């Protein structure tokens, strides 16, 4: 989590280590939501040295792999 919190341009960060399925078991161990101002800010964060360190650390915690989603919020 310290690596994520140091990402440049990060607006907010929320996570849960207990995601539960509704009516079925959840296939996920953890769910995290990182908020950036826009897609360009996200790309810049991932391309930064801190972003590369964060992405490089993921396999240490998510041995089953990860799924990344990007979405725009609707009003």
List the helices and strands and how they pair.
Elements: H1 2-5, E1 12-16, E2 31-35, H2 39-47, H3 49-57
Antiparallel strand pairs: 1-2
Helix pairs in contact: 2-3
Care to describe what's here?
This protein is of the alpha+beta class and 75 residues long. Helix content is 29%, strand content 13%. The chain has a two-stranded antiparallel ribbon. The longest helix has 9 residues, at 39-47. The protein has helices at 2-5, 39-47, 49-57; strands at 12-16, 31-35. The mean pLDDT is 92.
Rg over CA atoms? 13 Å
Strand content: 5-15%
Q: How many β strands by DSSP?
A: 2
Mean pLDDT: 92
- The sequence of SSEs as H and E is HEEHH
How is this structure best summarized?
With 75 residues, the chain is α+β, with helices and mostly antiparallel strands. Helices cover 29% and strands 13% of the residues.
List keywords for this structure.
alpha+beta, 75 residues, two-stranded antiparallel ribbon, 2 strands
